[in-house]
Each structure stands twice: as C-alpha cells, then as structure tokens.
Amino acid sequence: MRIGVVTFPGSLDDADAARAVRLAGGEAVALWHGDADLHGVDAVVLPGGFSYGDYLRCGAISRFAPVMTEVVAWAGRGLPVLGICNGFQILCESHLLPGALIRNDHRKFVCRDQRLRIENNRTPWTSAYAENAEVTIVLKNGEGGFVADEPTLDRLEGEGRVVARYLDDNPNGSLHDIAGITNEHGNVVGLMPHPEHAVEDLTGAGTDGLGFFAGLTALTAR
Amino acid sequence: MPKREILDPQGKAVLGALPRLGFEGVVDVRQGKRFEVEVEGAPDDERLAEVRRMAETLLANPVIEDFVVTVEAVEPAERERDDV
Lengths: 222, 84
Hints:
The structure holds two protein chains of two kinds.
Chain A: E1 2-7, H1 14-23, E2 27-32, E3 43-46, H2 66-76, E4 81-84, H3 86-93, E5 100-102, E6 110-118, E7 133-141, E8 145-147, H4 150-158, E9 162-166, E10 178-182, E11 188-191, H5 211-221
Parallel strand pairs in A: 1-2, 1-3, 3-4, 4-11
Antiparallel strand pairs in A: 5-8, 6-7, 6-9, 9-10, 10-11
Chain B: H1 9-20, H2 45-59, H3 76-83
C-alpha cells in the first residue's frame, strides 16, 4: 500500500502524515506540489499547514498547483484522497468537496484534544472505526469553521456524508458541528482535526487517529 | 465580499472596536477584499469577461463570496509613481 503525501510550500504536517502512514503499515511516498505526477500511489494525503502562506484564501492557490490537477483527475476515478485541515481547505477550493472553511467564529486559534464521533465508517479512510465510534484527536486551526448553504447541508446529512462530528463543544463555529465530510462516492474525505498527530502514546492524545491510516492499509491488503 | 448569510468574524471584530473608539451608531461591518487588476489596452467586453473569469476562478470563492467588477482608468503619471 503506497500512500502519497503532498508537500506544498508552507505544509507543516507532511512529515507527521508520512509517519502515521508508516506506523499503520503502509509505505509513505513523498509527492511534490510542482510535480504533476502521482507516481502510481494507491491513495493521497493532503496534509495540514499553511500552504502558500494562506495567501488569498486558505487553499486557494494550492488548488492550482500542478500536483492538484492529477489529484482532481484521479479522485474522479475513485482514488482515495484525505485532506487534513489545510488539506480539507484545498479539497473545498478544488470543488472535490462542497462548502468552504472560514475563520473560527470566536476569532482565536484553537489547539486542543477534541472528542469526535465517526459517523460514516464506509469510506476507505474510516473503515477501521466502528460506526459512531467516539474518539479523541488533536485539533488545531484558525480557519476551521465549515459553512455551506442549507441545500448542501441537507444533502450531506441526508446522504450520510458527515464523516466526523464534534462532540461536547463546537471548537470553531462549524455548521451542524461538522468536523469532516466525504464526497458522493466516499473516496474523498476532508477532516479538520489531525489524526496524524494522534498515532503514538509517546506524543499527543493517544492513538485514536491511527485508524484513518490503518483502514486503508487493511482494505488493500485483502 | 463575504455573502450576507456567511458569518464574517473579521467584520465583527471591527464592529466591536468602533464603539471603544467613540464611533457610535454603527450597526454592522463586513470586511471584503479589493483587487486592482491592471490590463493592457481598452477594457472592452471581451477583456471584462476575462477579468470576471479570473474572479470566479481564483480571486473569489463563489461558495462564500460575491464579487463585482468595475473599471477605472489608470493615469500614466500614477503608474510611473507606483513604479518608483
């Protein structure tokens, strides 16, 4: 199982994402924003950070990076793609996922261990979790408020496309407490919290995040 | 500009600051962006259509933002001053 991790200028969590892939039993393949080639990987992670300095809007410029042309094309053919935090913003800007992410309603950067419910375990990224599993994963964002118009929210809810929802306390003003969503086909997932920071007991909030990377490895091993 | 129905935290922060400075009677503030795109030649329909495409594609995110395109002439002297 070869999982590509894209590095954009300003990516911060690419090394942690690659480490999470390896800990889950996969092979991490470094992909470069300027290289319009996915090098035959089986899945792609768009990691967190501040790609292109968040200039213009978070993810707006990364969307047009050469590698994204390939990611968009292959996502349309079913390639599993996970966008974490800034990666989620890039997926929305790319129109691979609906809606947008705006500045936290309380206007402060938030960094904490966040309880979540995994409501959709039918995506390749969440298949390791039991349905409605409650997990704790690191959250850190300044522009993590998920917004979409009412018809879009109704569609996401009606089709079971809310992958993860905040529990206890909404950290950023996301509508419907949405922490993560998936596309119609379930292969593209965007997630605001950071599962790649919750994969080892030594650091972070336990190992609840490992499932996002382990599920995929188990799927292809079959 | 952020669409009416989209929360604008930056505008809210400015709205909160104004009364502290003694500016009364402000009921709402919304904060947007302005891009000055300088183009070659006359701004004919074709050129303006292209600028609108730029706005839809990159400058604005139509999911959360509305935009308007207006034309302003750039005086040659002003352009030189900018270059200094």
